[in-house]
Specification:
Layout lengths: L9 H36 L12 E4 L8 H5 L7 E2 L2 E2 L6 E2 L31 H18 L6 E5 L3 E4 L2 E4 L9 E5 L2 E4 L10 E6 L2 E6 L3 E3 L3 H6 L13 E6 L2 E6 L2 E3 L6 E4 L2 E6 L2 E3 L10 E4 L2 E11 L5 E3 L4 E10 L5 E6 L8 E7 L2 E3 L3 E8 L4 E17 L1 E9 L3 E5 L5 E5 L49 E16 L3 E6 L6 E13 L10 E5 L1 E10 L5
Parallel strand pairs: 1-5, 5-8, 6-9, 7-10, 8-11, 9-12, 10-13, 11-14, 12-15, 13-16, 14-17, 15-18, 16-19, 17-20, 18-20, 19-21, 20-22, 21-23, 22-24, 22-25, 23-26, 24-27, 25-27, 26-28, 27-31, 28-32, 31-33, 32-34, 33-35
Antiparallel strand pairs: 2-3, 4-7, 29-30
């Protein structure tokens, strides 16, 4: 062309631009990988910075603070038991019961805690104590550390063996609850000498807590159950509850499983506005005192959509409890959903506003039950509703027992068969083939005259009117509504109230049971009532006593 001008080489420019784009893309990808790797390292090693989850919570993983699974423990001890210059005994906001500061009665709100990972300078702990120290360090960093934003403690997949621990508040964040996400399988120490107080995991003085996940707390109570009734075992009386919530407010507990607790699965004391939902609390039907949830001195508690199979009450509502809701709970085996026992100790507080609905009981010893002791303690249980309940082969579907805890005597008659007597009651329930008259056998009692124990195994709790010392607890404003299903014993409704404080305002509406026990000779259902002012509506099967 004229003037010596040449057009640009368009193909070369395109090639160079393409190469530059590929280089920039590769660099960006490498940066992302490096950042991800770095964050993964920080997440696992417990460095000062932790990753943020999808909700922008800072995540504190217990393994980042020295916790090891059982498999890892087999490969060598974990000697970490300090955080910075603070030993585990000195950590604010947590501790191991029995160690200095372990109960964490005091608060150290101004203390700032190092969030760094395990220091390899400690030694001398058992595997359970090592993991306990690591769990506590994690809690302290998340709850009381330098970071004041929302935080989460993670127990990852794996099996962790751990002794008793205390997680104490208050936490730094005043606007967001601290989250504990349980993904793994947590096993309790079986050495009862490690438990200076009767709790395994304790959360206390926390306002705003979420415990979530599909993980499991295994109390490993099998050996303890064997010694609970042994007079020679002093340690058996110190059996710990698996999860204790002490003065915890505004809390959600969801999704977790508790297995084989040594004592109660869960225990709430002095709590307010707590919801327990979609939990599984499981122990064998013959395991002693393994209540699913025991509530005392608490209010605004909701128990929802859960499965409980225990050796004691699925839910027991103790003294000082108000505004309690239990809904959509499946119970069985177990002793039912009970209010009480009340009145065993002095100065117990009254109970009110209890609502139990849409629950199912399967093969339980009791269903809807209120129980008080006879003694010096006085109080009131009022405003109680059990409604829309299904009973499936329940031994005592509806019970008010104001002579709870009466001493039971077990004797043998001349045939060698057991005869069970409720001490202090006029009516006796026997299991035997005959009776003794004078010094010798005069005649054998016919099958039609004997008072046989239905099922042949256990004493019926429907054992006549309370006598002897009368309970001083007043039961009033009680409603049993739309309760139906099958009774495993002939006495389907037993209302045995106190002669000193008769029950008032007891209403039964649409009660409909059929017999489904082991007896083929007597299938009729009955009810029994003592010292109770009762009204009824709708269907009444069995016919209501007056």
């Amino acid at each position: 062309m004229s003037m010596g001008l040449r057009l640009p080489n368009m193909r070369g420019i395109a090639r160079r631009a393409s190469a530059k784009a590929v280089f920039l893309l590769g660099f960006a990808l490498l940066s992302c990988v490096a950042q991800s790797t770095s964050r993964g390292h920080l997440y696992r090693a417990g460095a000062r910075r932790s990753v943020l989850d999808a909700t922008n919570r800072k995540v504190f993983d217990v393994t980042a603070f020295g916790a090891k699974t059982e498999d890892q423990m087999k490969g060598g001890g974990n000697k970490a038991n300090v955080v910075g210059k603070l030993s585990v005994q000195e950590l604010p906001g947590g501790g191991i019961p029995g160690l200095p500061g372990g109960s964490a009665e005091e608060s150290f709100a101004d203390e700032k805690v190092d969030e760094s990972g395990p220091d390899e300078t400690g030694a001398g702990e058992s595997p359970e104590e090592e993991n306990g120290s690591a769990f506590i360090r994690t809690w302290v960093a998340a709850c009381r550390g330098n970071y004041s934003g929302p935080t989460k403690v993670v127990i990852p997949k794996g099996t962790f063996l751990i002794g008793p621990v205390v997680f104490q508040g208050p936490c730094n964040s005043s606007t967001e609850p601290i989250v504990v996400e349980v993904q793994g399988y947590v096993k309790a120490s079986t050495d009862l000498s490690q438990y200076s107080s009767p709790e395994w995991f304790t959360f206390e003085l926390v306002d705003g807590l979420i415990i979530t996940g599909d993980g499991t707390f295994d109390g490993q109570g099998q050996n303890v159950w064997k010694t609970r009734d042994s007079k020679e075992s002093s340690s058996a009386s110190n059996a710990p509850s698996s999860l204790k919530f002490n003065k915890v407010n505004n809390t959600l507990i969801e999704g977790i499983t508790s297995l084989n607790s040594k004592f109660f699965h869960t225990h709430m004391f002095g709590c307010k506005n707590v919801t327990m939902s979609n939990v599984h609390l499981i122990a064998p039907g013959d395991s002693p005192n393994t209540d699913g949830l025991h509530i005392s001195t608490s209010n605004q508690i909701k128990v929802l959509n859960s499965v409980m199979a225990t050796g004691d009450d699925c839910v027991s509502i103790g003294q000082g409890s108000h505004d309690i809701t239990v809904k959509n709970v499946t119970c069985g085996p177990g002793h039912g959903i009970s209010i009480g026992s009340l009145g065993k100790y002095k100065d117990e507080l009254s109970v009110s506003q209890i609502y139990v609905s849409n629950c199912t009981f399967r093969n339980t010893t009791n269903g809807a039950r209120i129980k008080t002791w006879a003694g010096e303690s006085a109080g009131e249980a009022t405003g109680i509703i059990y409604e829309d309940i299904i009973m499936d082969q329940v031994q005592n579907p509806i019970v008010i027992d104001q002579n709870y805890g009466a001493k039971k005597k077990v004797k043998k008659n001349i045939f060698g068969n057991k005869k069970m007597v409720v001490s202090g009651n006029k009516k006796r329930v026997r299991a035997g083939l005959g009776k003794k008259v004078g010094a010798g056998l005069k005649k054998k009692v016919g099958a039609g005259k004997k008072k046989a124990l239905q099922g042949g195994k256990k004493k019926s709790e429907a054992a006549g009117p309370p006598s002897g010392p009368a309970s001083k607890w007043k039961i009033s404003d009680v409603h049993f509504r739309n309760i139906r299903g099958t009774s495993a014993r002939n006495v389907a409704v037993s209302l045995a109230c106190s002669s000193a404080k008769p029950c008032e305002g007891v209403e039964l509406t649409d009660i409909n049971f059929s017999y489904q026990g082991t007896s083929t000779k007597s299938t009729a259902l009955t009810s029994e009532c003592f010292n109770a002012k009762i009204t009824s509506k709708g269907v009444q099967n069995p016919p209501l006593c007056r």
